[in-house]
Amino acid sequence: MKSPVLGLLPMTSLLSLDDLSACGRFYHVVECDGWISTRHVAPLDGPYEDAVLVAERFYDVPYLWGGKTASGIDCSGLVQVSMARAGFDLPRDSDLQYQAILAKGWSPQSLETARRGDLAFFPGHVGIMLDQETLLHANATFMAVTANPIEDVIRWVGKHHEAPFRGLFRPPKPAES
Fold first, then answer.
1. Which family does it belong to (predicted)?
2. Where would I find the beta strands (DSSP E) of 39-162?
């Protein structure tokens, strides 16, 4: 409890924990010979969380290109971390995420059928829908994770891209255990 912090771990970091290493409220972490609270560890096979609830934890976190932590996060990091906690493995970059969801056959949606948890893709940008009209995304417009009407985001991106909206996609239902 009184030792110095060894480092910060992004949400969804993979750790090697000693077998039977739970010592009260802590696990021994093999990689750094340190300890982590049992409250901050979850098994790889679930239980899974709602991706939107995970993403909302990052509301107002500063925008940081390449970031994936509460100290700073970018759009694809926000989506990757949130979707990972919901049981979906996505690449790090928004363009690779877009290609991955196309390859996995995620269901395309129209803006009229948008709903909570859908992913919205733009050239070089991605976000997660809070509801039918509102996108949660890490963005350089406000230099933070913000919630904005998706129509506003399309308009902002349209100032720099002829085709500002790549599509809206619904993740498949998580596999039943």
1. Belongs to the peptidase C40 family.
2. 68-69, 72-73, 107-109, 119-122, 125-129, 134-139, 144-149
Q: Which amino acid is at 72?
A: G
Q: What does pLDDT average to over the chain?
A: 89
Task: Give the Cα separation of 68 and 81 in Å (integer).
Answer: 7
Residue the block writes with tokens 């906690």:
85
* pLDDT at residue number 177: 33
Token pair of 83, please?
């979707």
Cβ atoms < 10 Å from Cβ of 64:
16
pLDDT 10s digits, 48-66 = 789 999 999 999 999 999 9
Q: What percent of the chain has pLDDT over 90?
A: 68
Domain 51-170: which CATH class?
alpha beta
Measured between alpha carbons, how far is 70 from 11 in angstroms, rounded to an integer?
Answer: 9
What is the DSSP-derived secondary structure letter of residue 23? Answer: B
